[in-house]
Amino acid sequence: SGLSDSISIPKKKIIIDYLPREFNNSDKVFWGKYEISKQNLIDDGVVPIDLYRSNNRKGESFTVRSIHIMYAYTEFDNKIKIYRPHGNKLEKWFTNCNENDIGSIKHLVYSGNLLIISKSYKDCRVIRNQGLNSIWFQNEGMLPNTTIINNLCTRCNNIIVWFDNDQTGLASGKNAVDYINSVAPNKARLVSLPPKLLQQKIKDPSDFIAEKGKVELNDFLQQKKLI
Fold first, then answer.
1. In whole angstroms, what is the distance from residue 45 CA to residue 107 CA?
2. Using CA atoms, how far apart are residues 55 and 94, in angstroms rounded to an integer?
3. Which of 68, 72, 154, 171 has its CA 20 to 30 A from that of 90?
4. Residue 110 has what DSSP assignment?
5. pTM (predicted TM-score)
6. C-alpha to C-alpha distance for 54 and 92, rounded to whole angstroms
7. What is the per-residue pLDDT across 101-153, written as a single tens digit (0 to 9) for each?
């Protein structure tokens, strides 16, 4: 029996399928808070969905339906990221993407002065709507390989890492800046919203625009010399 115990079962590849639906008023209300339009979502491959189907690593399939709004981010080659804004921490995200799947990279100019790296599609789109170049990493702790970082450093003169203004976000942001600077010295720096805004539940660009509006976000960007 000792032998059979050590045989590892190969992990099944995670496949995600989804059932799209039409955009409706709930979508408009949700994304409208962040000044993100239906056209922005269409351009970025954000698809409203009724359900998604997938499998676990053992290959057992499951289906998830939600009474609340749910989206598939479809911009990645053969991969999907599911976003459930009203889901709890465990339900909010489901994906077969890895750290090398960079959001909005297809919209990035070939070469530019400034690039802002954010940690979610929502933040990235808010920043792009201010006329700035932005991409997003899968989350604050997932950093892509050095080939990708090298490519970004070659294309952009200055890189700003803008994660959350809480302890985790600031630590992860510093980590990302150090990593980028290890590939290209003095290329990256950290920007974040003032931590005191956490009292108003504002931790990132999308929270900020929802609570304070476009004009104040613009002021902050000017203050940080980003525009």
1. 11
2. 11
3. 171
4. S
5. 0.94
6. 15
7. 999 999 998 889 999 999 999 999 999 999 999 999 999 999 999 999 999 99
Place of tokens 């909005």: 104
DSSP track, 146-214: HHHHHHHHHHEEEEEE---SSHHHHHHHHHHHHHHHHHSTT-EEE----GGGGGGT--SHHHHHHHH-H
Q: Could you tell me if 130 and 209 are in contact, meaning their C-beta atoms sit under 8 angstroms apart? A: no
Q: What would the pLDDT profile of 82-103 be if each residue is shown by its tens digit? A: 999 999 999 999 999 999 999 9
Whole-angstrom Cα distance, residue 46 to residue 73?
5
Q: Would the pLDDT of 9 be above 90?
A: no
Q: Would you put residue 131 in left (φ > 0), alpha (ψ -120 to 50) or beta?
A: left
Query: Is residue 218 helix, strand or coil?
Result: helix
Q: What is the pLDDT of residue 42?
A: 98
Residue 4 in this model has a pLDDT that exceeds 60: no
For residue 8 the two structure tokens come to 């590892």
CA atoms of 136 and 152, how far apart (whole Å): 12
